[in-house]
Amino acid sequence: MRKNIAGIALALVATAALAGSQENVDALVVAIENGGCVMTNENRATILAASRLTEEEAFDAEQTLYAEGLAVLEPNGSMSLQTGTCSAS
Known about the structure:
Keywords: Signal. By secondary structure, the protein is mostly helical. It is built from 4 helices and 3 strands. The protein has one domain: Orthogonal Bundle (Arc Repressor Mutant, subunit A), CATH 1.10.10. The protein has helices at 2-34, 44-51, 55-67, 84-87; strands at 38-39, 71-73, 79-81.
């Protein structure tokens, strides 16, 4: 019984963390889209402020965007979004 309760608790914590991560990704996407679809060293602070994410949360969200093919690291170090909104612009 204790193992089942511990397993359920662990699953709930993991699910909450994943949901929070997706919320962070969504917040970063909106902020970058509103900032012109590219995040550079020059506009990063403005985009992070708009997304209301910490540096760590933003880093994790960026890694998710790269992994999902929704962002590209450009040769100049900027990050370009490849979302429907950004691809259309």
